[in-house]
UniProtKB/TrEMBL annotation:
It is a single-pass membrane protein. Residues 1-26 are annotated as: Disordered. The keyword Transport applies. This is ATP synthase subunit b. One of its GO terms (cellular component) is proton-transporting ATP synthase complex. Residues 74-101 form a coiled coil.
Length: 185
């Protein structure tokens, strides 16, 4: 009875799967293992040949080109970095020279301004000294004139005082002589 069930089951599976009446899945059928292994070896060999002769050399070529491009780009970047460093050094040198030149110009301008101010100061000082000298001369002249009149004023004042005190006029020669004597002492 068990054998009938297995045969029935095989028939049902065989009829449900198609017209061939095979009872198992074809890749797992032991009758076709040899041909499957042969076609697997042929396909693998052909795929290996195509990959080694066509695809892998192309990939290797692409990798070589990329490696060369990267090396070239790195070399270019290094060259540009050197140029940039040189430009920065040149800029800093020019900046230092400009600062030094500006400092020199400022010192020159300061020295010129100082000498100009000193020259103007000397000129003004000379003008002031000249004006003071002339003022001293005028003062001396006025003083001399005033001193010359002092004798006359002293004489006339003394005459007026004596006339008031004595009630009579005194001779002008005597009053002048008395003023000169008083002035000398």
């Amino acid at each position: 009875m068990a054998q009938q069930q297995i045969d029935a089951h095989t028939e049902v599976a065989g009829h449900g799967g198609g017209e061939g009446g095979h009872a198992s899945f074809p890749p797992f059928d032991p009758n076709t293992f040899g041909s499957q292994l042969l076609w697997l070896a042929i396909t693998f060999g052909l795929l290996y040949y195509i990959m080694s002769k066509v695809a892998l050399p192309r990939i290797a070529n692409i990798l070589e080109v990329r490696r060369d491009r990267i090396a070239s780009d790195l070399g270019e970047a290094e060259r540009l970095k050197r140029e940039t460093d040189e430009a920065i050094a040149s800029y800093e040198e020019s900046l230092a020279e400009a600062r030094q030149k500006a400092h020199g110009i400022a010192n020159t301008a300061r020295d010129e301004a100082k000498s100009h101010i000193e020259a103007e100061f000397a000129k003004v000082e000379a003008d002031v000294a000249s004006q003071i000298s002339e003022a001293d001369k005028k003062i001396a002249a006025v003083k001399d004139a005033a001193m010359g009149e002092v004798d006359a004023i002293a004489t006339s004042t003394t005459s007026a005082i004596l006339e008031q005190i004595l009630g009579s006029s005194v001779a002008e020669k005597e009053v002048s002589k008395a003023v000169s004597t008083a002035k000398a002492n």
